[in-house]
Specification:
heterodimer, A: about 180 residues, mainly alpha, globular, B: about 25 residues, rod-shaped
């Protein structure tokens, strides 16, 4: 009790997500043609470790504590991970989207949920085309189940992590029609 | 709102996610 989102909130998230996907489709060609910054080097599709480092950053990947780096005032994306920018995700084909989703779900199966992970999972779900391939179908169900397992262990219902887990469960179950996994308040 | 070109800058997906997460806390 207190952890489960209201039906109204869930319906709103599905509507917003649907609008986000439409805008993504509309702007994809524009962003795909933009030059990437020179420091952005996207790993090859099959490079699981490379993608985990790229998305989550070397700090999270290597499980180092966040240390403030006073000498470097700019953001070092190699350390903190690249965010799912449109100029990056628009270049990913469906096979790559599915592979990276699989790599991050593998990661989440063993490690903590972080904001970086949440942003990438959301972005990859936004890029995932319907109808789902059987492989993607199984992956997103695995993702929602893992979110539920982690949510059960949450001690603080005001945690940002709780709302992120609720969001992912909601999108998988209600946007991608996996209703048996939906929260029924 | 998501159609507005200023919203659809390079970080649009990050903003959409952060807004969705914040909306639960504020609900």
């Amino acid at each position: 009790e207190g952890y489960c989102p209201t039906l109204k909130w869930q319906q709103q998230q599905v509507a917003n997500f649907s609008a986000v996907r439409q805008s993504l489709a509309k702007h994809r060609n524009h962003w795909r043609s933009q030059h990437l910054d020179s420091n952005v080097s996207m790993p090859k599709s099959e490079d699981e470790e490379g993608w985990k480092k790229f998305c989550l950053g070397e700090r999270v990947y290597s499980e180092l504590d966040a240390v403030s780096d006073n000498e470097n005032l700019g953001v070092d994306y190699i350390k903190v991970g690249f965010p799912p920018l449109l100029s990056i995700v628009s270049r990913m084909n469906q096979a790559t989207v599915t592979s990276v989703l699989e790599y991050l779900i593998n990661w989440f199966g063993e490690k903590k949920f972080t904001p970086e992970l949440g942003r990438w999972l959301y972005a990859l779900l936004a890029c995932l085309e319907k109808p789902l391939l059987p492989e993607a179908h199984s992956l997103i169900r695995q993702l929602a189940r893992r979110c539920s397992e982690v949510r059960v262990l949450e001690e603080n219902k005001n945690e940002e992590r709780l709302s992120a887990l609720n969001l992912i469960i909601c999108l998988v179950s209600r946007y991608f029609d996996q209703r048996d996994l939906a929260d029924e308040p | 709102q998501s159609d507005a070109s200023d919203v659809w800058d390079d970080t649009a997906l990050v903003k959409a996610y952060d807004k969705a997460v914040a909306s639960f806390k504020n609900a």
